[in-house]
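User: quick one, fold this
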Amino acid sequence: MLLREHNCFYEILPQPEKITPAEGSFEMNAPVAVDAPGQYAFQAERLKKAMAYFDMTNGPGSQIIRLAEDPSLPADGWKISVAPQEITLRASNHAGMSYAAAALIQMLAVATSAGKGRFLAMTCGTAEAVPRFPWRGFMLDSARHFRSRETIIKLLRIMAHFRCNVFHWHLTDNEGWRLPSHVAPELSGRGELHDGAYSYEDIAEIREEARALDIRIVPEFDLPGHSRRLIRVLPEMGCASGAGDEVCLGKKCVRDKVGELLNEVMELFPESTEIHLGGDEADSKHWEACPDCQKALLERALNSVRELEHEFVLSLIRQVQDSGRQAIVWNDAGIYPADVIVQIWVEKNRLENLKNGNPVIMSPCGRCYTDRLFDWELQFAEFQNYLGVQDNYLYDPYTGHEDFRSQILGVECCSWGEYLPERRLLNKILPRLTALAEVCCGDPRQKEWTSFVRRDARQRDAGCEFIW
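Assistant:
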C-alpha cells in the first residue's frame, strides 16, 4: 500500500522554469522498463543505476520510462512528462537529455526518501527547462592544494547533476605546476603547499569523463604573474634579480619557452575550445629594475612595463587564436581586443572591458567564490572573508550591467586552493555550487531563498550523492 503521492516536480534543483501539474499519479508498483535510442544509452544506464540504488525494479512491465529526441526543444533544454503508465524525457541533444535524466533521478530520490524507503506515487504533469546562460562554469584550483583524479571525476559528476557545463581548471601557479610536461619534466610534482601532479593517463581519463558528461574543460595557464614555481625550477625564466613571481618580459628565451609550454597545454586538451591565460595580479617592480625588460621596452618603443606586459599577453592570445581557439583572461589583466573573453572577478577594468565589447564571464569574488567562510566558521577566520550561501544564491549577473546583457556569457563559481585542502573541498563547494547553478539555469523572477533551502536539504536527505 502506497502512503501518499508526492509532487516531485517542485523538488528539482535547479528549479525548472515551467511546471504544469496534471490529474493522476505514477505508482511504481511493478517492474519499469527503460526505453532509449542508442544516442541516449548513457542516460538510460544512469537511470537504471538510480532505480537499482532506490530498490526500484527495472525490467519489462506495464510501466515505462521513455527517452525521446525532440528537435523542437532548444539546445540543452529538456522536458519531463509524467503520466500514470509512462514517464517521458525529451531533449534535442545529449546534454539536454542528461539534464532531464538528472532531474528525474532527483524526483525518484525524493519519492523514495519521503516515503521512508517506500516509493511514493509521483503526481502527474510536466516540467520544462532551458538553461539561462550558455556558460555555467566551475573553476577548481589544483595548483595550490593538489586535487586527486578521483576527486575531480566526482566533482564533474556533481557539476553535470546540477547542469553545469564548463570546468575551468587552474593548473599552474606560484605554489605548484600540476601538468605533465615533455618540454620541462622537472616542473611537475613538488609543490609549496602540497605535492602531486597529473599523469598523461589522469588527464586522458578526466577528459573522457568530461566528454561523457557534456562538460568542456578550460585549462588555465597563468602568466606572466603567478609563476614562482616556474621560475624556481627554471631560474632563467625570471628577471635578473631572481626575485618575484613574474616571468621576465624581455628575454627571448623566456618567450620561446613559454610558447612551447603553451603549445603543450593545448596539445594536452585537444578538444578544449577555450584556453585561459590568466594575466592577473602581476607586480611590475621587478620588471622596472630588470635590464632585459628595460632593453625590450626600448626595442619595442613602448612607454612602460605595463605596456610590455600587455604586449606579452597579447602574443599569447594570438598564439591561442592561431590554433583556432578562444583566449580568456582575468579582467584585471587589462583591455584586450573585443574577441577575447574576459572573466570578471574584481572591479578593476570591469566597465572598460564591457564598453570595449568583450564577451564576459561573471565571477565576482564577493558573490561567486566557494572557498569563503560559512557563518559558523567565522570564529576560526584569519585570512578569508565571510560569504553566505544566500549571497551566492541572490546574485544576478545582469544587475548593474543592463546595457551589456548580450555580452554576458554566464556565471562561473571559483574554488581557490590556498586554504582549502582536499578533505574539505566538497563540503565547501556544496551548497554554493547548487546555489550558483540555479543562478545560471533558473528564471530569476522565480527565485525564492526559502524554496532553495528546502529543495537543497531535501536532495541531500534523499541520497543523490550515489551519483557521484
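User: anything notable?
Assistant: The chain has 15 helices and 17 strands.
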